[in-house]
Amino acid sequence: MKRYVLMVIALIVTAVYLFPLYWMYITVFKSAAEMFQFPPTFWPQQAESHLRQVFEERNMARFLWNSLLIACGTTGVTLLVGTGAAYALAQVQNRWTSAAIFAVLVLQALPSSLMVTPIFTAFKGLGLLETPRFAVVIAQITKTLPFYIVLCRASFVQVPRELRDAALVDGASPMRAFFGVILPLAVNGILVSAILVFLQSFGEYVYARSLILDDQYQTATVGLSAFVGATKTDWIGIMTYSAIFVTPILIAFMLLQRKIVAGLTAGALK
Amino acid sequence: MNKLLSRFPRENGFEITLAGFALLYLLLFAGLPLLYNIVLSFQQVDLMEPATLLRPFAGLANYRDVFSRPEAGQVLSNTLQFVGLSLLFQVVIGFLLAMLFLQDFPLATFMRGLFLAGWIMPGLVVGVIWKLLFAGDYGVLNHVLTQMGILHSKIFWLSDPQWSLYAVIIANVWLGVPFNMLLLSVGLAAIPADLYEAAELDGANAWQRFWGITLPMMKSTLGAVVSLGAIMTMQQFDLLAALTQGGPANSSQVAQYWSWQLSLQTFEVSAGSAVATLMMVLVLIVAVIYVRSTRNERMV
Amino acid sequence: MDQATHRIQIENLSKAYGPVQVLKDINISVPEGRFVALIGPSGCGKSTLLRTIAGLEKITGGTLRIDGQIVNDMPPRKRDVAMVFQSYALYPHMNIEKNMSYSLRLKRSAPEAIRQSIAGVAETLGLGHLLERMPRQLSGGQRQRVAMGRAIVRNPKVFLFDEPLSNLDAALRVHMRAEIRKLHHRLHATSVYVTHDQIEAMTMADHVVVLRAGQVEQQGAPLALYEKPANKFVAGFIGSPAMNFIEGVVGPDAQCVLFGGAARQQVELGRALPPGQPVWIGLRPEHLRLQGEGQSVQGVVDSVESTGSMTFIALNVDGAPQPLLVAHPGTVTAAMGDVLKLYIAPQQIHVFDKTTELAL
Amino acid sequence: MNIRISALCATLTLALSSAASLAATLSVWAVDEPDNYTEKMAREFAKLHPDIQLQVRKVGFSSLNDEAMRAVMSGNGPDVIPIDNPNTAMFAAKNALLDLTPYLAKSKVIDVKQIYPGPLKNASWNGKVYAIPRGANTLALYYNEDMFKAAGLDPDKPPQSWDELYADAKKLTNAQKNVYGLAFSAVGDEEGVFQFLPFIQATGADWDKLNDPGAARAAAFWQKLLDEKLASPDTLSHRQSEAAATFINSNAAMDINGPWELMAVEKGAKFKWRVALLPPEKAGGTRASALGEQSHAVLRSAKNPQAAFAFLEYMYSQRNRNWNEFGMLPPSKDTVTKDPKWPQAYKTFNEQMQYARPRGPNPQWPKVSKAISTAVQSVLTHQADPKKAMDQAYKTVEATKH
């Protein structure tokens, strides 16, 4: 009985929480007049949609592809660079590593919107603006890396130290011990952190807006911002665009969520 | 760098290489821009001049300028409220949800998964959705609250200076709750069940078990969650840009957005950099808290 | 004995974390095939010492030789030592077979050879039917065996044990103790065994090293430590129940010790010590007799506990910081408040200097 | 039409796929609205000049200034940028723009003397021309005829003074039906300032005369409209386009807006509507309106100034299409608009244009703008008294002059 009471509570809470998402989808199918109605309608009365039109007119295929490439690149490099660092900062614990963690946090102190001017200037000097998507990847990593290190470090801390010792005594080099024993055990945490990094960079806006100077490399977030202009605010269009933008991630997430959540909760090794 | 490396115990060579690479990357691509910002805050800057570090030194004039502005006090108070309230509600709601979904009931895992969906939304998208929800005349939030009898007249969330900051906070809490729940779930799952059993045998009720076991065992997780949350909240920008842009009349203005407006809208780069530098001090404090919370986290 | 026959030779070894000395001037030699126990209270540095032998901790002074070769800077993988951890440290993501074969696979031994050695060891330890299982599917005792097996498979120069039995229940612990001992007899493998349980040390080891605060207090054969403890610490640490101590002063005749304040008592030592010297006298509970003749110590019964086979009586004696414990076989009738006499032979009395605590 | 689109697509693919030859590359920034003017023009221009390799980047209107500033600073700018007209002075004063005066002297396409003085003033700095206005726009009063009639008002007599505007708005407001009398934008950036300036200018004050009591009167008038809920309290966060949307969807009976909304109004409005001149403070008093629209400038760092100027000439040459295709008023006297759409609106906006006043020039316009919008918003939210707020803004504006 108690289980079903809890379930009902959880259902209500979840429904309330997901309401904004519902509202986004419902608005997609409303007409402008209906959207401005008060009291608002909770179900579109004469459903219409401009999914196809928005997708094509806004060149979303191209934008989404660019977003995907950038997110994959960012996630890949973050994993490559960050995993080892997270492990190192979990494994070695002394005042130097404390200082390093401190540095990692402080180095991402400022929002991208304030970092972008010096980064733009520097990238121009380095010639990185010639490869705009790569430039965005490089810039985004400064945000995702600290975040990833901090998250991932926590899962490395969960791996008992004695396992590494055992591997070393068994004849593994520190590198073998890392790849053969520690990495497989932290893989859940790594996976989850990587997914979060991916999503974070898929939704990144500021660096893409400023570092990509050619529209054919532009990302979906920037495409969305073009809707909100001085002389035009097309709410239905914005919601349609947003829905097209987030639905693939939502679906991918739904498919993966079992694994993610299971990985998270079973993460603690005994 | 070499001298620094030599001070590490040599047996950790492999680990040092790993960490060193990441740190070097961050120093290069995040450290230098940061430093640039700090330098600017002590200089007289004309943005149009070519990029150079040699500009007239201004001492603390930029800081005095920032503090002498009429909106300075409000921005400070708003920033503290924005960070403090966002964190408070994110952590409390996240904690409650994490505990709820840790219980055994049908569909628990599935629903928790759904919850995380909120977090994968880009800040910009969340911003525009909430702007629609908050709309005073036709927004659904006003309708629902009125129907429930909580409100008697519409609140103009984004235009009423008494509400605008809280509107932004509400949206930010919405955005941050899944992340908090996620990390706190992991922490909660790591608490051995026998501790609760032991406490129950000792006659502790649920409330006492929470204060006696859950909270102390979650100390380091909470430390991490709070400090990461604080840093993420101080970085929140897309949401502000989409919702109120600091308005009306600076009523929802917070440091990060103000700094951006000064630097890149009115092109008072020196003042903008000074605000950014002051923000870094705040982050510095949070980072200290985080690093302290990571100590003694290994119980083995 | 020359160095070559010593598997492990530790000379003046020291280890410091920054300003904190955790090991000081350690000298231990372990001949081939010997079973050495490192024992001491927690925090004495015994585990650290073991880890320095494994190469998991760097030493900051002295030399450490394995098979005559200095290994101070040698990484663990080159030392050819095997270690059994307190938590067993089984790789959770590998099944039992993979766990046991990990080191051999790292050495790139032939798969057939690996299979054979695993089969052999599994047979010996009775793990044959568990090879496909994952560690989490095993009971504590089984895991412990796997940890042993993982070490044995390698046929290393040295076995290191870090409190391997402390996570087992009492019965299993006694059983495994015997089993490890049997294995050692069969394999004749040089072993260093860390424990805080002196019974384990006494029953299993050929050679016991007692550590305190990073220093060796005494080392030698188990019985030698029991019979001739070098100081009050070792005397108190070795033996169960622990030795009783009474504070006293050597009498004017140099032959006896006076103690007990107003209710003056004395015991004969059967040897001469400088008169007037303040001392501790040490009396083992199992040496105190309720019936007998000759000299005795008198006390008031504080408590009586009987296990059936043994009766433990605690008596309050002036001059003893703790009540004197008597271990008496069988059952004894005594009640709280009774005054009892405890008989003891002079040669069974240990005497330690009051200040240096060294045996006299 | 179809042919044109496919030709466009062909050019587009060509532009994206073929390797760049630097000598003939033309890099253009475009703001995505209205109706994609700059990008459309660039594509047409590139089609006429196959040797030119076109690169277009869309920039959000709100980030135009800082993106352009960054581009100038790093020397990595495009050849042609759009500038919101009050900001030309800022870029020119910072020496970022190419002085077009010598080019104009030789030009056979652009005759500066024909350009209306307002737009020209907004495109010049220190007597030199730095930009070519692509057109002009101004604000007027849209109103819903059906609602006028329903409220017993005469659609032939739109408000002629602030008092009438107030009275009409009051009659038109119907809280039960969620209808406000008036919609406009007081949002906290340039858009809100753009809407506010006509009101203070009607009183005799101006952006550099905010200490004039008229400025406080204008602010107080806006305050009254909001306080009495004749305009939505969300006016403070509505952009002009959102204000227009409430008008189009019959949630507001009148709307102060520009010609760029004509197409949206025509498409969306399910009622009869008209456009009237903005009312002066007192009937028969000074009329004023804002002067807006983007101009196009060539950056000093442009690699190909000849081609860039040729592109500016091309856009200017197409000015006859401004009204019908893009909802923009022409930039010059010699423009001929054939069969103007929405003739009533065309006439009104053209008339209103005579009262349009340029913003600035002031090389620190963004700072001026920010000061004004903060003042307006703090009055509307009752955080400051109109007089005090305007005086404070005046001081800030004065400080930019030194």
TrEMBL record, chain A:
Keywords: Cell membrane, Membrane, Transmembrane, Transmembrane helix, Transport. Residues 64-256 form the ABC transmembrane type-1 domain. It is found in: Cell membrane. GO terms for cellular component: plasma membrane. Pfam families: BPD_transp_1 (PF00528). This is Trehalose transport system permease protein SugB. The chain crosses the membrane at residues 5-26, 63-89, 101-122, 134-156, 177-199, 235-256. It comes from Amantichitinum ursilacus. InterPro entries: BP-dep_ABC_trans_perm (IPR050901), MetI-like (IPR000515), MetI-like_sf (IPR035906). It comes from the Bacteria. GO terms for biological process: transmembrane transport. It is a multi-pass membrane protein. Coiled coil: none annotated. Belongs to the binding-protein-dependent transport system permease family.
Automatic annotation (TrEMBL), chain B:
One of its GO terms (cellular component) is plasma membrane. It is found in: Cell membrane. It holds the Pfam family BPD_transp_1. It is a multi-pass membrane protein. The chain crosses the membrane at residues 12-36, 80-102, 114-133, 163-189, 210-232, 269-291. This is Lactose transport system permease protein LacF. Belongs to the binding-protein-dependent transport system permease family. The keyword Membrane applies. Residues 76-290 form the ABC transmembrane type-1 domain. It comes from the Bacteria. CDD domains: TM_PBP2. The keyword Transmembrane applies. Keywords: Cell membrane, Membrane, Transmembrane, Transmembrane helix, Transport. GO terms for biological process: transmembrane transport.
From TrEMBL, chain C:
Residues 8-238 form the ABC transporter domain. The keyword Cell membrane applies. GO terms for molecular function: ABC-type transporter activity; ATP binding; ATP hydrolysis activity. InterPro entries: AAA+_ATPase, ABC_transporter-like_ATP-bd, ABC_transporter-like_CS, ABC_transpr_MalK-like, ABC_transpr_MalK/UgpC-like, Mo/tungstate-bd_C_term_dom, NA-bd_OB-fold, P-loop_NTPase. It is an enzyme of class 3 (hydrolase). Its EC number is 3.6.3.19. One of its GO terms (biological process) is carbohydrate transport. Keywords: ATP-binding, Cell membrane, Hydrolase, Membrane, Nucleotide-binding, Transport. GO terms for cellular component: ATP-binding cassette (ABC) transporter complex, substrate-binding subunit-containing. PANTHER family: MALTODEXTRIN IMPORT ATP-BINDING PROTEIN MSMX, OSMOPROTECTIVE COMPOUNDS UPTAKE ATP-BINDING PROTEIN GGTA. This is Maltose/maltodextrin import ATP-binding protein MalK. The gene is malK_8.
UniProtKB/TrEMBL annotation, chain D:
Keywords: Signal. GO terms for cellular component: periplasmic space. Its main location: periplasm. It comes from Amantichitinum ursilacus. This is Cyclodextrin-binding protein. CDD domains: PBP2_TMBP_like. Belongs to the bacterial solute-binding protein 1 family. It is found in: Periplasm. Residues 1-23 form the signal peptide.
